[in-house]
Amino acid sequence: MSRTSRISALALSALAVIAPSFAAGTTLNLQMESDNDEDSPPSSTNEIQVGAVETLTLTIRNERISQPIVLPRTQGLNVSGSGYDPHTGDHTFFVTPSHPGNYTIRAFDIRTDSGHVLHVNAFKFRAVTQ
Fold first, then answer.
1. What is the pLDDT of residue 64?
2. Domain limits of the chain?
3. Residue 17 — φ and ψ, nearest 5°?
4. What are the backbone dihedrals phi and psi of residue 74, each rounded to the nearest 5 degrees, phi first?
5. Cβ atoms of 129 and 52 closer than 8 Å
6. Which residues pair with 109 in a beta bridge?
7. Running along the chain, 130 residues long, what does each successive block of 10 average in pLDDT?
8. CA–CA separation, 118 vs 28, rounded Å?
9. Fold of 3-128
């Protein structure tokens, strides 16, 4: 994971932990995890290789969500699975872009078991060939 990705992930996690609970209308962001080695040259935080599996993480703290979270369909983007870690509140999605270009996973809402609506911002990234 690149230094920038780690810092962003820590900041997002810290923000979520500080809040005692999410209120209606809370906005969340998807976070891209980078598998780059520390010795690799830095790249754009939201840039990945065509055909590479990338992990997107959505962290939700202090709210229960019984229904599975499904990413909105995005042309050219294959979602090959997802998971949930109840200890961290992380919802993970495994995505693979099929062609080079700019991608946008559109914004969407999640309804919690307590009735709150959480808004997830649109997420943009670029897929490149080697």
1. 87
2. 3-128
3. -75, -35
4. -135, 120
5. no
6. 119
7. 38 33 59 56 69 92 88 95 89 96 95 92 93
8. 7
9. Immunoglobulin-like (2.60.40)
Backbone angles phi, psi at 3, to 5 degrees: -60, -40
Residue 57, number of CB atoms within 10 A of its CB: 20
Residue pointed to by tokens 């065509």: 50
Q: How far apart are CA 60 and CA 118, in angstroms?
A: 9
* Both structure tokens of 68: 């599975």
How far apart CA 56 and CA 81 sit, in angstroms, is: 11
Cβ burial of 116 (10 Å; 0-12, 13-18, 19+) is middle
Distance CA 85, CA 61 (A): 11
Question: Minimal CA–CA distance to 42: which of 11, 9, 6, 10?
Answer: 6
d(CA 46, CA 38): 17
Say if strands 54-59 and 90-97 run parallel, antiparallel, or are unpaired: antiparallel
Mapped onto helix, strand or coil, the DSSP state of residue 72 is: coil
Q: What is the pTM of this model?
A: 0.71
